[in-house]
Structure formats: structure tokens, C-alpha cells
Design goal:
The protein has helices at about 1-15, 15-55. It is an all-alpha fold. The protein has a domain at about 15-50. It is rod-shaped. The termini are far apart.
Length: about 70
């Protein structure tokens, strides 16, 4: 275990490794940003679908005419 922790501390002290980790982090952040619009749109669709189901039974159906009622 001591050898492994020495290797980790050497990696974090190296400027090249720090730049490499930073580049990896930036790539992961860019990929995550791509999924934000997908998640937001799915949440909006789910919210609209949920509201529609709750509001339909309580309202009067506009397609029913006065003669049928």
C-alpha cells in the first residue's frame, strides 16, 4: 500500500499529469453538458404529461355539445 500511495502523490505533483487530468475532466464536463438538454426536455415532457392526466377528469370535455349533455 505504501508504494501505491507514493505513486499517487508523485502523479499529483507532476505538472504533466495535472494537465492530463484537467484535460480528462474537461472532456467529461463537455460530454455531461450534452446530456443536460435531453434530461431537461424529458423532465418537461413528464411534467406536462403528469399535469394533463390530473387535470382532464376535473374539467368539462369541450367536445361534448349542449344537446348531448
Amino acid at each position: 500500500m505504501a508504494g501505491g500511495s507514493d505513486k499517487v502523490s508523485m502523479m499529483s505533483n507532476s505538472p504533466d499529469k495535472r494537465n492530463e487530468w484537467r484535460a480528462i475532466f474537461y472532456v467529461q464536463a463537455r460530454v455531461a453538458i450534452l446530456f443536460v438538454p435531453v434530461v431537461v426536455s424529458l423532465l418537461i415532457i413528464a411534467a406536462l404529461a403528469g399535469n394533463e392526466r390530473k387535470s382532464v377528469p376535473g374539467t368539462v370535455d369541450p367536445t361534448v355539445t349542449g344537446s348531448v349533455r
